[in-house]
Amino acid sequence: MIKKLTILLLIGFLILQFFGPELPEVINKNPKDLITNNPDIPEDIKTILQVSCYDCHSNETTYPWYSNIAPVSFLVARDINHARDDLNFSNWEDMNKLDKASALDEITDVIIDDEMPMAIYTAMHRGASLSDQQKELLVSWTEEFSDQMFD
After folding, report:
1. 3-class SS at 125?
2. Is the separation of the CB atoms in 58 and 33 below 8 Å?
3. Contact 21/82 with Cβ under 8 angstroms?
4. Are 73 and 42 in contact (CB under 8 A)?
């Protein structure tokens, strides 16, 4: 009985590999990107954003090996699509000032509430976890950057 169940699960797993989701497109040239269009962003902030945010919140996703293996591929595709819908740094310049300010305020909130980066992401990408100092830097920057937009 256990042997038959194991074989059925293995066959199901193999079949599932042929019906995985289409992963969101990767685009490495993004002329409307936040970092590209704001050269005054401090290097430490750029690094934090690129390491801890850009895989999900930009078109510049670097997919890990496991992102092509179902059922994980379904989770990766869902999370990235949802993240890009919420905020896509690659389309920053398409946003109006109020939407940008709202996005920066939301970044502050999710950082303070330890909602981002997501625990499931940092479990697999240890370098993406934010230290308390990085959180403070990022929160300070979002507030300053928002203020600068309205000067």
Report:
1. coil
2. yes
3. no
4. no
Q: Cα–Cα distance between 62 and 55 in angstroms, integer?
A: 6
Other CB atoms within a 10 A radius of the CB of residue 94 amount to 9
Nearest to 49 by CA among 100, 105, 120, 111: 111
Q: Reply yes or no: is the peptide bond before residue 21 cis, omega within 30 of 0.
A: no
Which tokens sit at 25?
């497109």
Distances (CA, A) of 8 to 15, 59, 68, 73: 10, 38, 21, 21
Q: Residue type for 36, please?
A: T
* C-alpha–C-alpha distance, residues 42 and 149, integer Å: 16
N-term to C-term CA, the chain: 71
Let me know: does 92 contact 129? Beta carbons within 8 Å. no
What are 93-127's pLDDT values in tens digits?
A: 999 999 999 999 999 999 999 999 999 999 999 89
Residue 142 pLDDT: 97
Low-confidence ranges of the chain (pLDDT < 50): none
126: which 2 tokens?
């240890």
CA gap 111, 137 in Å, rounded: 11
